[in-house]
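Mycothiol system anti-sigma-R factor (Propioniciclava flava), 89 aa
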Amino acid sequence: MREPKKVDCAYVEERVQRFLDGELSEQEADELRFHLDACAHCIDGADLIETYRRLVQRSCACQAPESLRLRIVSQLRSVHVTHVQIHRP
Ligand SMILES: [Zn+2]
């Protein structure tokens, strides 16, 4: 079995969205899977996108409108830290 070539994080970040959309070639998808298996940094980003996709799929059998998809994706890209706000009476 051939091993996919090693790719770096920037390469993966560039392609992860198309990877999840199933738009990459088989070879590119293999490269990403191989990298994501080993890279905690990239899996964080991919997890966020996956989670969003599952939510969308579960709540609605139809596709999310393109505008909503783009808005969520751009938010995901800008999320680094979440914080919890506690409301006191
Ligand atoms: Zn990486």
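Residues 9, 12, 35, 39, 41-42 surround zinc ion (CB under 6 Å). Residues 9-78 form one domain. ok done for today
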